[in-house]
Design a protein that fits this description.
By secondary structure, this protein is of the alpha+beta class. It has two domains: 2-133, PAS domain (Beta-Lactamase, 2-Layer Sandwich), CATH 3.30.450; 141-248, Orthogonal Bundle (Arc Repressor Mutant, subunit A), CATH 1.10.10.60. Helix content is 47%, strand content 19%. It is built from eleven helices and seven strands. The protein has helices at residues 2-6, 20-28, 48-54, 73-89, 141-157, 164-170, 175-186, 190-208, 213-219, 225-236, 240-248, and strands at residues 7-9, 16-18, 32-38, 43-46, 93-101, 107-118, 124-133. The strands form two sheets. The protein has a five-stranded antiparallel β-sheet with strand order 4-3-7-6-5. β5 (93-101) and β6 (107-118) form a beta hairpin. The longest helix is centred in the C-terminal third of the chain and has 19 residues, at 190-208.
Amino acid sequence: MFRTMLIKPNADDGLFDCQPELLALFETLIHVIFCAKDRDGVYVEVNSAFVRRTGKSSKADVIGTRASDHFATELAERYEEQDALVLGTGEPLYDELELIRRPDGHLGWYLTTKLPVRGPGDDIVGLVSVSRDLVAPPDDRIGLDQLRGVVRHIQERFAEPIRIADLAVLADCSEAQLERRMKRVFGVTATQHVLRVRVEAATRLLADTDQPIAQVAANCGFYDQPDFTRRFARLTGTTPAQFRMHASNGQTDPP
């Protein structure tokens, strides 16, 4: 129901229009980046948070363009791969953890969800995407207290192998309960939180030290350098070497 209500085909130009009332709601969500694209990857609607992320001054500068017009090649290709998966399978992409640039230029963690949009005849005519900034601190104090030992363990031992089963023992709950608590309090699963801590540590080592990338990978708990490079690139849209190069030039966000 959500998908059919949100977007309707526009027979005149082959695009689609979002209902004004729902677009107005997205304008009030300052920590949510929203966009809608047609099957060709052209932006047909965005909110102000998305405009700020592109560095443009108005929606008119974004609508009618593509990701490659605003983002570095690595980022644009990653977004296009996600889009192709949603458009090709017709299946939503939920809670994809990403390290991307906030409107102030700093790196920030986001959870991205993309949904296919269907028109008459159930044909997929495009997609909608929201990326939620995880900058807000936890407001579930009881849940946070229950997870304090888990969080401390991850922070202190992220370089070591970490099993979710062991974290569940620390929290005195089942693995399924742990995942639900982590999701409720932090917005991410325990597995995603471990990865987030490791990648944050890696960005610091890449920017502030001359350690070989293979050593950075080992120091941050990744299996090996290829595993580190693959996961880092998927989250940031840039390889560790590229991230280090841009950091050395005074840039702390993905190119």
